[in-house]
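Handoff note, outgoing to incoming analyst
You'll be picking up this chain. Sequence as last confirmed:
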Amino acid sequence: MLATISSDTDSRKIRRRIVWGLISLVVILLVSAGFLFRNLPDANKFNERVEQLFVESDLTSSTEIAALEILAQSGTAFSETLNSYLMVIFVLVLFSIAVLVTALVFLFTVIAANRRLAEVEKRGIEITSLMISRAENAVYLNNMAFQLTPAAIETLSVLAEARMDEETLSGAEIEAMISGKLAADCDEASGATRIKRLRDALGNQMVSELLVKNIARKGYMLACPPDVIRMD
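Most recent structure output, in case you need it:
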């Protein structure tokens, strides 16, 4: 119970740090964008200077007037270009914020998935149905079907019968029940080899490791309720 509370507390601390880190990045982006916008030249400043020059100057020749018109057109082009740059910068800032928010959502999703996986690893697989078919050399675990070898089926059947009797079998006892010998005459390693082959036959590492439990100094057992096991 204390371990669960500690794990939840650590998860909340991690999420809180991630949120504050993301908020800090967003604030830095906004401050940088505001500083950039503030220090960019005024788009109309050039036109204002041209207008001031036109008012204060005594222009008489057509050449001088044409030069001022060219300057005014250049100022307009500069103003339009600067406005387009401002729009590009604004879009990039919004895009950066959107990427950060998306990264946060993805990170929370990964954390949640890791927590669920950790819970599965701690509690084991929630098995609602386990049917062993010797005729088909197959085992049906919930909605998953596994095709096994006859030797793996025998090993799984022995474990299932022991589970229904609420028993734990050592490697020597597993080998004795399958081979028909006395447990004293069987080697522990032989039973362990049969368990390894069963797990290899199941294929999915997480399923096999969580289904076939190895209890220290006791032996092997199936991690499922006895009433969900069926054999034919």
